[in-house]
Input
Amino acid sequence: MKRLIVMALLLSIAGAQVDYNSQIQTIFNDKCTSCHGGSGGLNLSSYDELMKGSNSGAVIKAGDASNSLLIQRIDGSVTPQMPQGGDAFSDSVISLIKKWINEGALEQVSVTVESQLPSHFEIVGNYPNPFNPHTRIVISTMTHVQGQASIVTSSGKSVYDFGPVSFKPGSNSLIWRGQNSRGNTLSSGIYFFILKHDDLVVTHRMILLK
Ligand code: HEC
Output
């Protein structure tokens, strides 16, 4: 029974998450790459190019759709509205792209469900959140889990490495002091806790607020 609940939970997380290559890149290929296809400036032909941004900087702010220039251009809050010369996107398309950014703007959906499920684990949350100066990340597992844990910024830069971690069945926690690996305190912002175990990657969004 418990196993079924965890499986349902993992499936619902995976099902709900927006997949970059099949759901977002296809929109850009259809409506944007005719102009933003690599002849200088913003290039929307791949995830890596998109994340490089334009000559004036990043157009995606992971975790923060409203402050991402790409969203501001397609919803018309910054003009000229995109796609330039074409029909504006419907609310549902804009919501989909926003959802992908708010989920962390990752290239890969962060939970992979295999037909044979590996050890079940889940990031329950971090307490407190927002936090300052430290937070406790709670991970719940059903079996012994060994993996790699780290913290990345909203632009995907790795700032802190917990190294190899090992969890026993039940509730486990890790403390993060809002510092990088050199012990320097980081600035306010959105950070992602990433836990990798075999092919399974789980992320969790946290806010450091000073
Ligand atoms: C017909 C050509 C054309 C199409 C199609 C087009 N764009 Fe643009 N885009 C432009 C031009 C030209 C600019 C620069 C305009 C300006 O800022 O004055 C621009 C600028 C932008 C910028 C701002 C870059 C910066 O740093 O200022 C973003 C973001 C952007 N486009 C996103 C998109 C997206 C997303 C799509 C697809 C939905 C799209 N564009 C489709 C021509 C196009």
